[in-house]
Amino acid sequence: MSKVASAAGKAIDWASVASKLKLDAATASAIANFRSRHAQAVAKLGTLREQATTVDFATYRSVLANKEIVNRIESSMKSFKPVKIDLNSQLKAINAFEAKASEGAKKNVELVKAELQNLSATLKNIEQARPTEEITIEDMKQAVPEIEKIVETMVTKGKWVIPGYREKFGDLSIM
Question: What is this structure's pTM?
Answer without folding.
Answer: 0.36
